[in-house]
Each structure stands twice: as C-alpha cells, then as structure tokens.
Amino acid sequence: MSKQWMRLDNAALIFPAIRQRGWANVFRVSATLTEPVDPALLQQAAAELMPRFPSMYVRLKTGFFWYYLEELEEPPQVREDFAFPLTLMQGKELKSCCLRIMYFQNRIAVEFFHSLTDGTGGMVYLKTLTARYLSLRWGREIPAEEGVLDWQESPRPEELEDSFIRHTNGVVLNDKEPDALRLRGSRAANFNYLTTGVIPTAALREAAHRFGATVTVFLAAVMEEAILNYQAELCPVRKRRKPVKVTVPINLRRLYGSRTLRNFVLTLNTGVDPRMGDYSLEELCKVIAAQLAAEGTAQQMAGRIAANVTPQQIFLIRAIPLGLKSFVMRIIYNRRGETKGCINLSNLGVVRVPEAMRSQVSRMEFIIGTQRSYPNNCSVATYGEQTYVNMIRNIRESELERRFFSRLVDLGVPVAIESNTR
Hints:
Layout: E1 5-7, H1 14-18, E2 26-33, H2 39-48, E3 58-62, E4 67-71, E5 79-80, H3 91-94, E6 99-104, E7 107-113, H4 119-138, H5 157-160, H6 163-167, E8 193-200, H7 201-210, H8 215-234, E9 244-251, H9 253-256, E10 265-272, H10 281-295, H11 298-312, H12 315-318, H13 322-337, E11 343-350, H14 355-358, E12 361-368, E13 376-383, E14 386-393, H15 399-410, E15 416-419
Parallel strand pairs: 5-6, 9-11, 11-13
Antiparallel strand pairs: 1-4, 2-7, 2-12, 3-4, 6-7, 8-14, 8-15, 9-10, 13-14
Helix pairs in contact: 2-4, 7-8, 8-10, 8-15
C-alpha cells in the first residue's frame, strides 16, 4: 500500500530550506494538569488521534523539486521531557517524525517543526490530545468544543487545505522597509534560556486599557520601549541608531474564516525610527495600533500572501531542482527574512478548554523558539486568570527581559518570574 503524502503549505516551504546547524524552527504548546501524567495512557491517546490529524503525524522528505510530508506508519513514542524546551530537531529526527509528544510530572507538552502548523493549529492538537487523555484517565467523554475536535470524526478537507493558495488576490504588495536593529549577545552553547512572567490577566488588561490599547499592542509597545532605551544607552549618538520594530504574527483565520490546521499566519513589523525623536509609551501604543490596523486588513494581507504565492506558481521556478531552490531561498531569507524586525511577540490569545476538563487543567502555555538570527523571542498565552509571557533567548545576557518585566512592574502590573536557570 502506497504511503500518503502532502505538499508543504506556502509558509512552510521556507523552513526546511533555511535550517542550519544548531537551529530549526520549532515551537511548543503545553498543558499542566492537576495530577501526574500516565505515560501509557498518553501513548494510547496519541495513537488514537493519528487518523484525526493526518497533517501532524508526518515525516519530512526530500523530493527532486520540493520538500514534502509523508504519513507515518506508527504514532511517535511519547517520551519524558528532557534538557530544556525546544532542543534542536536534527535532520535525522525530522526524517522520522516532525513532532514530539512529551510529559514531565503533571505536564503534557508537544513540540512541532513549524512546517507542520502554527500556534493555533498546534493548540487545537494539544487540547484534543489532552481531552482524549483525560477521557481515558477518567472514563468519561469530553465534548468536542472550545477547540477540542471529535477524535472519532474523519478529518475535514478545510482542515488540511493550504489557505494561502485559496486567499491570494494575485496582486503583489510592495512591502519594502528599512532594516531594523539587530539584538546581539554572547551565544550560549546549545542552550535556550527561558524566563516566564506569570501575570494576573485582569491587571494586564487594566494596564493596556489605560493606554487605550489591546494586550498585544500594549506588550509590543512595552517591548519596543525597552529596546529603544537599551539602544540609546549603547548608542548615544541618535543619528546612528537603527529602527526598532517588534514583529507581530497575524492569525489569518480570523480575517478569512479559515479552519485550516496548517500554517496560516503572516507577520507585520511594527515600530518606529528613533532618529526621528523620542516616543512615550502612549505614543508607541498609538503607532503600533495604527500600523496593525492599516496593514492587517484582509485586502493588505491578501497582497502579502500574493507576494509569497505568486513566485512559486511560475513554471520556471517550479522546475528548478530543490538544491538550487534551497540555495536561492536561503539567500533571499538572509537578506529579507529577519532583517526588518528585532524580536517576535506572538500572542496566542485566550486559550479555552471545555468545562468538563477545566478543573483538571491548571495551565496552558505557548513557547516559540529563537529565530535563525534573533537571539530573543517572546510568546504569550492567557489561560483562566493568568497570562503567561515566555521570553526565550540563546544568549547569556538577560538584559532585555529584565527591562521588559521591570517596566511592567513599574506600570503596576504584578509579575511572578519563573526561569529554567538559577
């Protein structure tokens, strides 16, 4: 019987091509339960979900013209969580399976190679896995609601579609912009430092509302202010400073009503040029909100989608062998992919689960890895009364998160700090 395979979605094509020694684009979602995880039941749940999520249970394969994903014969083995979050997925591992299912004490965690899905799709999988695990543990079904899918249902075609292809308008948007400041530091040897700020959601929302901003805009503005002040100390001469921009991923499902479980996110670089003058936090909130409102419309994003989709539909480009394609994609990515922003701030928003499992899930989190050239990244998720802000870095210096969290405290937002180092 021949194995099923699928093309990588439009956003996923770049990730295999730009992998390098010591870096692969991986992210994590996790659920902390009120009791220790039973590995055997977690393995059973993972196996039972395999027919429901065919786009998740795959390996990365190399074709003559493109990378592609091939279905697995067996579900991956769940493993005890090890080392630190988001350890490198080597090429050998990706050829075996593109996701990890892990447990540690009360926590279930899943790590995805970004070619499979984005944070929204990953969270749907995690919630369904956790719901099935709890059903097996307690002998009662959990309803398919709040992002939990019916595990016995066949996958729906819209869940597997490449929504980028469907929603391009064919008109390429010109998005030229200046390069941004590049954050730097002393590279750590094969280690990701993770600092988590646990924040009361009500206090965070109240602070954002004081500035007339959403939580995403407010956090992006505080991050931008921290970077602006840091750069000003390192570079006293204003005219030599670089633009400071926080990259904000936009969930396109909300714009187009897509139900895909594959990647459907594009990013916007929001920020200011410090050579033009100083900005208050209130002004930064206004600038970022205006930029997101102007550039984040369905029409503008369709133009950005077209900029990615159109070149891949040209026959001559499609006919180029994969090795040469990857070489060209790496050159383009090095020049444009991460040169326009300083750091990502990815807010998954409010994570909800069915009421039937709410009392058994105490915490839900989202952690993105560092980029190919960004040493710092930030991801946010809200569950219940707490918001979890995860700042990750592959450099030793903790200056940015110190400034960021300290500023939140100065603004009256309580922050409890957790770290994977002493």
